[in-house]
């Protein structure tokens, strides 16, 4: 049975919809076609405008002085929103990452880590990334021809990269992976710690406890890693406060690997499902930079960000009132028929590819260059050794409304070496 526009809008607030690509994209295509700026009043969430066209998402991203991250940077259930506010009123820490900030705080705080992700720094890091890519393709080979690619390979490779950059001990990597999956998988029965708002808040408090200890250690004994740069940063001559320091760690240590592992897993799945594109890429490895961009577009690991209008704004035929929130649907923008030729075709040579997976404007992803290098290094190593590959079971996606991708990708394969 076909969806109504109202049902399509509510799908954006349904974590299960993001675990079903066909259902999600049916809803998004309907909204782009019939109601690209659509008022949604979902059960268990505060209402919002759903923004589904590429051009409208870009317009809102450009107008960052009107559409603010605060006070609602992401879609959360009303009960969890209320629990966060209650905890804060009781003195508990609240996450305040770059995702939560607007200028001028965003600009000066972003600058703390910016140099670590510039092209020069990325070139210096690339040998280590390639070494880790080889190690994880070796790991794939050692698994003997069948594995769950997500859980046994893809989840670990970007984690090792970003936590090495931070300077965390390898003994803590497993803990960071579990906490990240619990935080981003809070709506998924296989990944969440618990169902209640209190249990979801506990994950955040565990992150804060870990990183508060790290901050104290790096302030006592500074080192030459990113963790020390954050711990000892100053803003206007004053040390970064403990809340902002810890929040900085959280965004780097979570989004810095989970989104990339989703891209690698989803990119491999797309190649398996499109063997002609896999053959094309193996025959012409110079296409790999374009293929990486197509994987990023195809997967779009960040599903949405929210913005709140600080004054009335006319978008198309709709007036968004001061105080109302908009949901920027990046998977929808990245399948917009007005921008992408045959948007539902996976094309390793797609050029141009004006995807929005890293955002746009002042909030463009800080780690975009790192993610591109990681994905490219992994597939260069894998494709040079790959003989055969196929699915060995049914892939499954994370139930989420924020960040996610595949949680299982069972494969059967043969590698050289």
TrEMBL record:
Q: Kindly list the residue ranges recorded as spanning the membrane.
A: none
Q: Which UniProt keywords apply?
A: Heme, Iron, Metal-binding, Monooxygenase, Oxidoreductase
One GO biological process term is: cholesterol catabolic process
SUPFAM superfamilies (UniProt xref): Cytochrome P450 (SSF48264)
Q: Which InterPro entries match?
A: Cyt_P450 (IPR001128), Cyt_P450_B (IPR002397), Cyt_P450_CS (IPR017972), Cyt_P450_sf (IPR036396)
One example of the protein's molecular function in GO is: cholest-4-en-3-one 26-monooxygenase activity
An example Pfam family from this entry, by short name, is p450
PANTHER family cross-referenced by the UniProt entry: BIOTIN BIOSYNTHESIS CYTOCHROME P450, P450, PUTATIVE (EUROFUNG)-RELATED
Q: Which family does it belong to?
A: Belongs to the cytochrome P450 family.
Please report the name of this protein according to its UniProt entry: Cytochrome P450
Q: Please name the source species.
A: Spongiactinospora rosea
């Amino acid at each position: 049975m076909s969806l109504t526009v109202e049902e399509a809008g509510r799908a954006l607030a349904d974590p299960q919809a993001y675990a079903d690509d066909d259902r999600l994209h049916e809803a998004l295509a309907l909204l782009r076609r019939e109601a690209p700026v659509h008022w949604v009043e979902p059960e268990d969430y505060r209402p919002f405008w759903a923004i589904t066209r590429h051009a409208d998402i870009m317009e809102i991203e450009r107008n960052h002085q009107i559409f603010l991250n605060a006070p609602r940077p992401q879609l959360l259930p009303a009960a969890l929103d209320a629990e966060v506010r209650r905890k804060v009123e009781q003195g508990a820490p609240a996450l305040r990452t770059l995702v939560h900030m607007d200028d001028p705080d965003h600009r000066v705080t972003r600058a703390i880590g910016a140099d670590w992700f510039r092209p020069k720094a990325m070139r210096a890091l690339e040998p280590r990334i390639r070494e880790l890519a080889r190690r994880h393709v070796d790991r794939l080979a050692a698994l003997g021809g069948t594995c769950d690619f997500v859980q046994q390979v893809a989840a670990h490779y970007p984690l090792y990269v970003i936590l090495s950059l931070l300077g965390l001990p390898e003994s803590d990597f497993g803990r960071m992976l579990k906490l990240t999956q619990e935080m981003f998988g809070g709506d998924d029965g296989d990944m969440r710690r618990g169902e209640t708002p209190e249990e979801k808040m506990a994950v955040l408090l565990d992150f804060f406890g870990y990183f508060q200890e790290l901050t104290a250690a790096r302030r006592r004994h500074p080192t030459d890693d990113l963790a020390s740069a954050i711990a000892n940063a100053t803003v206007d001559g004053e040390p970064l406060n403990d809340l902002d320091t810890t929040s900085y760690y959280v965004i780097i240590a979570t989004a810095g690997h989970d989104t990339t592992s989703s891209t690698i897993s989803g990119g491999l799945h797309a190649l398996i499902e499109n063997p002609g594109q896999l053959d094309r890429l193996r025959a012409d490895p110079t296409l790999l930079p374009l293929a990486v961009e197509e994987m990023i577009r195809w997967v779009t690991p960040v599903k949405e960000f929210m913005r709140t209008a600080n004054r009335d704004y006319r978008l198309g035929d709709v007036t968004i009132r001061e105080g109302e929130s908009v949901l920027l649907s990046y998977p929808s923008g990245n399948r917009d028929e007005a921008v992408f030729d045959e948007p539902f075709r996976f094309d390793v040579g797609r050029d141009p590819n004006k995807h929005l997976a890293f955002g746009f404007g002042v909030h463009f992803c800080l780690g975009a260059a790192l993610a591109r290098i990681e994905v490219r290094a992994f597939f260069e190593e894998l494709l040079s050794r790959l003989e055969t590959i196929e699915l060995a079971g049914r892939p499954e996606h994370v139930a989420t409304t924020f960040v996610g991708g595949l949680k299982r990708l069972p494969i059967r394969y043969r590698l050289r070496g």
